[in-house]
Design goal:
This protein has a two-stranded antiparallel sheet. The longest helix has about 30 residues, at about 150-180. The protein is mostly helical and about 210 residues long. The two termini are about 15 Å apart. The chain is elongated, with a radius of gyration of 20 Å. It has a domain at about 10-80. The chain has helices at about 15-40, 55-80, 85-95, 95-100, 115-135, 140-145, 150-180, 185-190, 195-200, 200-210; strands at about 10, 190-195.
């Protein structure tokens, strides 16, 4: 049966555990961004009211961070093999003008994820590792006495810088979802149409038809 015969079908893209982990990570990230801004910038301190006040915000922030890391760990395990770099990903980068112009006919066929999604996946993984390590160092309630003040100050600066980078990455991720209409459906219902797969992830569709995925 040809891949073309599947363009009108509904395909399973993300199982329930992946979707739950994704939305836990998304909600956790937003809460971390809000609480982080409230704690770092005096002008945004009013946001702490959403969490029950400044003291409660300071208490919850690192625990929400752990929820984010654990949920992303689920995604990392599930997506690791699909996000390994392939030859077509290099071609995608080299043909960036075609990507930006939406000329998908000039791009190679892709597997489950395109190069941009893979770069986001690995970039956020690196950012979360740095944020986790620096966050633990400045977690005064449990680890404050284990490192000198100079190290804590450096960790706080590093944590802030990488948090801003993560927020920028998150904004890009949201934009990428709008770039491929139908992508959000995959993380809500877990399914996509065959036509969507044929247009954006044709190699992945062929693998499904061939029974390799």
């Amino acid at each position: 049966m040809s891949a073309e015969r599947h363009t009108v079908s509904t395909l399973k893209r993300h199982p329930l555990d992946v979707r739950i982990a994704h939305w836990v990570a998304a909600v956790s990230f937003i809460l971390l961004g809000l609480s982080g801004f409230a704690l770092f910038f005096p002008g945004f301190f009013f946001i702490t009211a959403l969490f029950g006040g400044g003291e409660t915000t300071r208490f919850l922030h690192p625990w929400i961070g752990l929820a984010l890391v654990l949920s992303y760990l689920v995604l990392f395990v599930r997506f690791f093999s699909a996000c390994l770099w392939k030859k077509e990903d290099t071609t995608w980068v080299l043909r960036a003008p075609d990507v930006l112009a939406g000329r998908e006919e000039n791009l190679p066929e892709f597997g489950k994820f395109i190069a941009g999604q893979k770069m986001y996946f690995w970039g956020m993984a690196l950012l979360f590792v740095v944020l986790l390590v620096s966050g633990v160092i400045i977690w005064q309630a449990y680890f404050g006495s284990l490192t000198p003040i100079a190290v804590q100050r450096l960790a706080a600066l590093t944590h802030s810088i990488f948090a801003v980078l993560a927020i920028l990455g998150f904004i890009i991720h949201v934009h990428m979802v709008t770039w491929e209409p139908g992508t959000l459906r995959a993380m809500i219902s877990g399914t996509v149409t065959g036509g969507w797969a044929w247009k954006h992830h044709r190699k992945w569709l062929r693998e499904i038809v061939a029974g390799k995925n």
